Amino acid sequence: MSSKRILLLIGVLITAFALLSAFANQAPDYEKENLNSYEYWEGCTSILVGKKASADGSTMTTHTCDCGMCDWTFRFVPAADHKEGDVRKIYHVSQYRTWPPEQGLKWEKYKDDYTGLDIPQVPHTYAYIHGMFGYMNENQVALGESTIGCQRKMRNQTPSAKFDLTMLTLMAMERAKTAREAIQIMGDLGTTYGYGFNDGGEMLAVSDPDEVWIFEIMPVGPLWAPESKKPGAVWCAQRIPDDHVSVTPNESRIGEIDLENEDFFMASSNAVSYAIENGYYDPESGEPFSWKKAYSPSQGSALGSQGRRGRLWRFYNIVAPSLDLGPDTESMDLPFSVKPDKKISVQDVMSITRDKYKGALFDPSEGIKGGPFANPNYFKGFEVDKQRYNGPRCICVNNVEYTTITQCRGWLPDPIGGILWLSFGAQDTACYMPLYCGLTELPKSFQVGDHFVFNRDSARWASDYVDFHTQVAYSYAIEDVKKAQEKWEGIAFQNIPIIDEAALKLFKENPEKARQFLTDFSVNHADSVVNAWWKLGDDLLVKYNHFRIYNPETRKINRIQTPEWWNKALIKLEDLKPISTPPPPPPKKKKREAA
User: Fold this and answer.
1) Nearest-angstrom CA–CA distance, 490 and 488
2) 188-217: per-residue pLDDT in tens?
């Protein structure tokens, strides 16, 4: 080979390495390659409930969008008809990126990241609601999400990967009538056009009124090219038994797979072969193939991680305590799904999303960890003298953007049957609001807001306003918040059967009037909750101002009392001395003698 060709080859390799390094640096800090690092376990939690495991026969999925810096706004996308020859432009949509409001909100700016790919448009696309991901369409196809990671060399953050996770979910919402269709659509798009760019190993909880699935998809490395004719992604899906529940807490959940059992498994053509080719699985080992062990191995237990890996165990401990699963059980050995001891209601799911280990192992509010007012948000873990001390990772964290609970109810027409319950900000201080999937618009307050600019027009800031004022004297203020939650969520639960019945009657006469009725209810109730939360924030500010308790009705003030254990701890730590007797009087001044 000539020296010129050698130099040219070296230049190409250097350029390629620089590009790969640049793309690798796009990964968010909290999506570390080392899955055991404590930073990683701050991602999202997704709960899944089969129709025979739920109290009312609905299927349910959740997404706690745990980020702390991501866009929290929501949009409604109407259904549309398309002409023959129309194309669908494909964009890269980062889960994490936001822009200053004066530059434009995310769902205006993302079109600047056009991938250059156009795919054939379908004749009709369905209406849907989306936030960071697509969450529910007019056919009651619903999604939840949790990042699960993958083997390091599987990541593909190069432009060859045309689809990232957000774009896949939007395509599923536009085109799917069932959960299975959604899975096949996303899987085919990923394998055909390449998956990755902004995302690595990801899980989606995919449901419709009949079925609930865990769908996991991963890239196939930065050297993939469409010209290779090989799949540009590897994916697998496993169905939750109808009478079971499951959860994904940033851990791959699919273990041994049986692709001949089409009732419960779906997968890409390379689901097993890719693992063999890359040394992730040896068929000669005598061990059965395990999806999670091959592609996203992650060792640890709730006890061994001091609660950092506790969400999976904690969820099963809540819903099926009779199984007596110990906190020292390796997470990868815990079952894919379990039959709950009692059927699960949507209220139960709301309660689980608010769980902070209260009164249980790893409770972060106990003792000095929670301070004098039992605040579960103080103890996050820290490093002292190069030693790491873990705080527990609760299902409920205060860096959540919003939480969705999708409820698919097959006994009602789709526009009435699908409900997306949405709360903004930390679940323990927020309020869930029902949005029927048949609506045609969303509250304006859901469509604006940014972490770095306070905005009284934003629903999320109303929740943050309450949360901020709750933190000051948490054990006192959280009781006021619970009363408000009971009131407004109670109103919703009381009204849902009435709205269902009225909407069903309207739907039989005029489906469009029924959709307008559902829109009016969803928007009006949400507006009422947002206004109530602004007032609640004001009330908390007044009530607990200056570490006192101000009662506007009696116009009296009481002190906020610190607990006795806290007072005793201060005595010991600060070596405080009691005042046992009054201090001696100051010495009397001597009278001046006369000259």
Assistant:
1) 5
2) 999 999 999 999 999 999 999 999 999 999
Q: If DSSP codes are grouped into helix, strand and coil, which group holds residue 548?
A: strand
Report DSSP state, residue 54: B
Cα 297 from Cα 578, distance rounded (Å): 57
pTM of the model: 0.91
pLDDT tens for 353-362 read 999 999 999 9
CA distance 47 to 31: 21
Mean pLDDT of 88-102: 94
Taking the chain, what is the end-to-end CA distance rounded to the nearest angstrom?
Answer: 118
For the purposes of burial, counting CB atoms within 10 Å of the CB of 76, is it exposed (0-12), middle (13-18) or buried (19 or more)?
middle
Question: Is the pLDDT confidence value at 149 over 60?
Answer: yes
Return the SS3 of 12.
helix
Amino acid letter at 36?
Answer: N
For the record, the structure tokens of 481 come out as 């918040």
**CB burial string 447-484: b at 16+ within 10 A, e below:** bbbbbeeeeeebbbbbbbbbbebbbbbbbbbbebbeeb
Q: 498: exposed, middle or buried (C-beta count within 10 Å: 0-12, 13-18, 19+)?
A: exposed
Question: Tokens standing for 170?
Answer: 């939007």
491 Rama class: left (phi>0) / alpha (psi -120 to 50) / beta: alpha
Residue 468, token pair as written in the block: 């901020």
User: Using one digit for the tens of pLDDT, what is the confidence trace for 150-184?
Assistant: 999 999 999 999 999 999 999 999 999 999 999 99
